[in-house]
Specification:
The protein is an alpha/beta fold. The two termini are 38 Å apart. The longest helix has 57 residues. 32% of the residues are buried. The protein is elongated and about 125 Å long. A hairpin with a 2-residue loop joins strand 4 and strand 5.
Length: 635
Amino acid sequence: MPARADCSLEHILSSDAIGSARKRGNPLAHVEAAGWGRGLGTLLRITRMTLRHPWQVSIAIGSTIIAAGLQLMIPQLLGRAVDETQLAFTGGAAGAAAEEALWMTALVLLVVSILRGVFTMWQNYYSESVGHHIGYELRLACYEKIQRLSFSFHDQVHSGDLITIGMLDLEGVRMFFSTALVRVVLLGILIGVGAYLLLSTDLVLGLLALSFVPFVAWRSSITQLRLRSTWLDLQERLSVLTRVMEENLGGIRVVRAFAAQLHEMGKFDKASKSALSLAHERVGIRVRNTSAMTFSFFAAMGLVLWFGGNKVMAGEISVGTLASFLTFMTILQMPVRQLGLMVNSFARASTCGSRLFGLLDLDIAIKDAPGAKPLVVTEGTLRFENVDFAYPGQEARPVLKDVSFTGRRGETIGIVGPPGSGKSTIAHLIPRFYDVTGGRITLDGQDIRKATLATLRKAVAVVQQDSFLFTTTIENNIAYGDPWAKERRIERAAESAQLHNYVLGLPSAYGTVVGERGVSLSGGQRQRLSIARALMLQPAVMVFDDSTAAIDAATEQRIRAAMRKYAEDRLTIIIAHRLSSLMHADQILFIENGEIVERGTHDELLALGGRYKALYDLQVRPGDDVLNEVQGAAQ
């Protein structure tokens, strides 16, 4: 076993394996690799989104321009202060005038610095405000889109991918305005106007002062792009580490039962070392490039000091002018390094935006047809008319073939068959979780594809075997479909599901909070709560998809007895493997390989002596002779 586990872990840790697994059958795979054209379109789309908040954008950009202009004044003011200090030491009237001018320069410098701080604060606040507004809008749009996407989409996409898009990718788009667009304005003014001022003052000295800019900008951009690439790889390795931990915690009882703690520690250690080695590599990239950029800056400063010092001694420039050059270099050092962050922001927004907008732009497979009308239920008659169905992308392997039956109000239809025969697919087609690929399904003569989804799903309630419960009170779980329902109605639904007496025995009764995924309830109790939740809707069609599998036979019979008054006014469809759950049905359909091979009442099917009879004998008197009968009937 360890050898197999190690191989699988190595496969998981492989980035190629991760990429291929992510793309297989993934509707989002087409947005993984965005070309330059698509990336530019994505950036323009994000930019247009920022313009929905014009006054905030205007304040942010305006504050950035003013703050940059004020910052460019600081080196000039410091240079002037140095020259005035020299004159102040000469004494006399000139020295007194210089001292007075020095005080004025210091006051102006103080005011400029304060104003620069204020406008920088406004720049940061409003640029972040724009980003958070965009994030809010995208978060709602993304969540709303996920709510509407069809089951066929969710069948092919891992929930972790959607969470990544809705959180990490959305964050990359949200920060684009503050870390890229605003930074373009800031750096453009600082470098462009600052370079003009330096070069116009002294061409050679200006070139020396700016000599570190191209190298630092290049190394910063390369470093940020490499760090981003390795960060994405590190995220994948940390995801593997999380999956190993999650699997271990979820199966902790199995791990303990098989005394596999050392094996699990080995798996975790291997995944942890893989993440650690990449983290060390990232540190090395950052340290080496930071050192190189710092060295280039001080080398340029040394050249300015040497060349400028000679000019000062030659009387060509003043000490204040040299000081202003050095001050500007110090101010410019950090913004130039931010060029890499800006490039990274463009790259990140392009990649993240392509994935996010790829999700938002997906076509919804199951939606209201043009001109769809509300479903009007009168007789409550459901018909399957020569229905064919194949899951998207698997058209060559149809799940249902020419399925036809009719169910009326007050009737109960039972559906039974071997696993994989298409029973649950029938349950999913009635509320239009999927659309049929052939034939049609009608409710009171209305094609369900031409009815609005909201009214259809209010008329059809499906109780599935996997009962999902929310982390809230039992009362809220039962009333999920009708949050404003009265307490007595909630209690009646719980009574019909044989859950009321159990709930009353809890410390907080219906106010008891159910744990994550209902872990504080047994499997049977969760299923009964799901049944009560469906009964609250009072639908025209009730579908039980093996929803009593975890309930003992006696409790199931009590549930059936309590639900008889509900069944009188609606069609009930029961899908089950346990024949005792559906023997009372008015019509029983035996499904095999997607086709109805037998139909009739319980007695009629027993008299037929076919597959249903063989399954009945297997359940009521199991033995080798019955197994032989079942195998013979299947042939």
